[in-house]
Structure formats: C-alpha cells, structure tokens
Design a protein that fits this description.
- This protein is 59% helix and 0% strand.
- It has helices at 5-9, 15-68, 97-102.
- The longest helix has 54 residues, at 15-68.
- The protein is flat and about 95 Å long.
C-alpha cells in the first residue's frame, strides 16, 4: 500500500521537541515537589501557632477568673475539615428541564 510522504510528516516529532518537553516536565515536577514541601512546612507552622494561641487564650481566661472572679468564654481556633473533590465527582446536579420549568428557572438548548 502506498502512502504519500506528507502523511508520515504528521507523525514526525523532532528530538529537540521531545527533549524540550522532558526538560519542561522535569522543571514542573521540581516545582511541584518544592510546593509540597512548602505546604507541609506552612501547615506545621500554622498548627503550632494555632495551638499556642489557644493555650494563651485559655491561660488569659484563667487569670481573669482568678484575679476578678469573672468567667469569660474562651475563643478557640480550630482547623476546618477539608474534603478534596474527587476528580470524577458530579459538581452539578441536573434536575431536568421539566423540574427547571416548574421552578421558573431558564432552560437552555430548546
């Protein structure tokens, strides 16, 4: 079977292109690893600071109670629970055209 040379040119990738893509990939991976380390460090610092502030607030409340006999509420900084989205999770729940019309929502594509 005969194929013209132009058909093979679509599949030709130069060595320079592959090498530059590999260099870019290595740079992105190095940046990703650096960001992971920075995130872990920042998280540890925030946790230490959060615990220290909570301890100081509790001590302050105890001192005010001891000195003045006044009980005050102690504020507390808590870490929020973060649930990362799954990549294949449904972000939008389609209620359907009929239900949208009943709710008075605009229906597109009709």
């Amino acid at each position: 079977m005969w194929l013209p040379d132009k058909a093979f040119e679509f599949f030709h990738i130069s060595k320079q292109t592959v090498d530059s893509l590999r260099e870019d990939l290595a740079a992105v991976r190095a940046e990703r690893d650096t960001l992971k380390i920075q995130l872990a460090t920042s998280t540890n610092h925030f946790d230490w600071l959060r615990i220290r502030i909570n301890t100081l607030e509790a001590e302050r409340a105890q001192l005010i109670e001891k000195a003045y006999g006044i009980r005050i509420p102690v504020p507390e900084i808590v870490r929020p629970n973060v649930n990362p989205l799954e990549l294949n999770a449904d972000l939008f729940n389609d209620i359907g055209d009929d239900a949208a019309k009943k709710l008075g929502l605009p229906v597109y594509g009709n």
